[in-house]
């Protein structure tokens, strides 16, 4: 091997090492970013299932994700209403619930004071919606007591004898009233007595340990795990129609996002193609004007836009939000993409007798799928997450809000009472459509058919 | 025959009362108020509103209502009737965008608690009618006091009694603090005003005198004295949060805490008494938090707007508001309502909060044209003293300098 050939091999090896190092660093960064993003997503999902998403320290294992509790919730749901998934308490409801208390052997174990309180779930609009209470429809209330084997507790080497007993509560629906979504329960016992087991873990321990409290003892398995999600849909209601506001907000956001996507695609492709291909006086000036307009902050033009929309009577309509920001950077993306398409392809189409419109519609647009998908995703994501314009342009009625503004109203109604679980569930649901969009269409962004459209 | 029929028809149409009604747009914030206003309009007052020839369009606003209102008044898109918070009302009153209370509604104004009307006076004119209000009161957790073997707080407690009880609770139980304090004038004022100090003197200046220092020292040293803790140190942002999770024995909040406790601590056994009295003056201090129904000056249906407010403030409506437990009505005569004699804890908190509006040295939660600028100076001083960033005298001296620049001296 000559000296120059050897030097060449050494250089190639060094280049490969550098390339490998670059790839490792790049993929490492991408993996780290993905882990952080997905980790955040997973934490948000877990927190949205908890009763108290702000609990400190954050627990990864909590009641709602224990399969044993799903089975119990399933059984209780079926007992309460025949609906094992979403539970409730309705005609034919016959529920059995057990509580086991323990106390030192020298302390009397007394029957806990059981109550099904007339308790409304949450605050805000729910206060006006819930008018039926399980307590008003319970008959045949029985409590049975069974002493269990004594046991011993060792603390710091000192063994103390303890006793325990289980109280079985059974109650039935009066068979005439409505199906009620939840059956709250409280059990009050002296401080000397400790709740050691229950059919379902208590939602909270109150009054410094005196009271064990359950929000719903007939939840059904899905109702148990996804209670916050059920609440966000059922408790945010239009007080005039009784319809779920959250569902309306979802629909409004979809409608506005779809409208923005369609209009953005139409304007961005046409304007982008014109700027990329058509030669006319003022072409460059128009392009520069477009760039300058993109640099103007929305706050500068907000008042004039608002007044225009007011004067054409579009305030408080989805059309105002759809039309207020149709095109911006998307025109730039399309222009750059169209410029990357070899002119020969269009010239070949023209030679075959196609007009400008046919070339654009039949040849250029189908080849622009990656750019179109990118613009679609960007426009959808921008419209879906837009907060400013819907907040300014749609004030009333509540059923006309978009999701971000609706979530703000939930925060106003429930955040003051520290009821964050419902708000977080709503916020989590609002992220899902964008995520699905990215998952479905990301391959189109990577895929680029232009390379196969022409020969070098 | 045909002519006769036509004439009769024309005559009957001319003598029939006009069926067309004025559309009055009303606006306020959303949240829990949605329930109150919606129920008032659709359940309690529906017939009266119809009889008055008014059609109401209710437009609750989410987000920053003050900002919305400023923008809407500027753009001419504001509702005819809307809320004005006493805290940020002065700049709007000064702008001329709000119409004074009409002569027809003077009788309603006269029936309200006088301190509530003071909150909406501007240049000698009443600019809105207080739709409801809140004051501060002392809530205490009965289980905590029982477990600690300490007597419950009472209406007659002085500051010293109050602090001693909190210290005893904290010492006897170990795992509970007396109170969690926040660097917020909206709570500290309960003590500052009790000394006889006033946020503005007769010249309109803020002077932090010895009376103020007395309250400032008492409040900011509660943690040092073993009677309290900073709310942030127990992971909370307000006194109600500490109280709700039983970290503290007492809280100083308005009746809004009852909704929070109903949700977060539904089994809690709590009582409510007035703010402790200052040992020197023998009086308690308090703030009034209130919101008015006001009318836009450029409303095209001003008469109907005033009429609608009259209905919304009628005894019938206020009685419903009181009994629903959603807010406290502003008519003075409702102080004798049987609801307040109830033995339940929510009736008790309503009674104490209602009476708080006319008990001792009471000021509206409003700071003339200075608004948030005034309050932020006070909050900064409280924060600096509680966090030991400044000594008490240093914090007061620094705040005084800032007030001198803001309000003059």
Catalogue the unreliable spans of chain B: 11-19
How would a crystallographer describe the biggest sheet of chain B?
7 strands, mixed
Total count of helical runs of at least 4 residues of chain A: 16
Q: What is the CA-based Rg of chain A, rounded?
A: 32 Å
Order of helices and strands of chain A: HHEEHEEEEEEEHHHHHHHHHHHHH
Number of helices of chain B: 18
The quaternary organization reads as: heterodimer
Secondary structure tally: strands of chain B: 14
Beta-strand content of chain B = 15-25%
How much helicity do the residues of chain A have?
Answer: 40-55%
* Residue-averaged pLDDT of chain B: 91
Major pleated sheet of chain A: 5 strands, antiparallel
Decide which structural class fits the backbone of chain A: alpha+beta
Number of strands of chain A: 9
Query: What class, by secondary structure content of chain B?
Result: alpha/beta
Distance N terminus to C terminus of chain B? 86 Å
End-to-end separation of chain A: 36 Å
**Mean pLDDT over the full residue set of chain A:** 87
In percent, how helical is the residue content of chain B?
40-55%
Subcellular location (chain A): Cell membrane
Membrane topology (chain A): Multi-pass membrane protein
Organism (chain A): Salinispirillum sp. LH 10-3-1
Family (chain A): Belongs to the binding-protein-dependent transport system permease family.
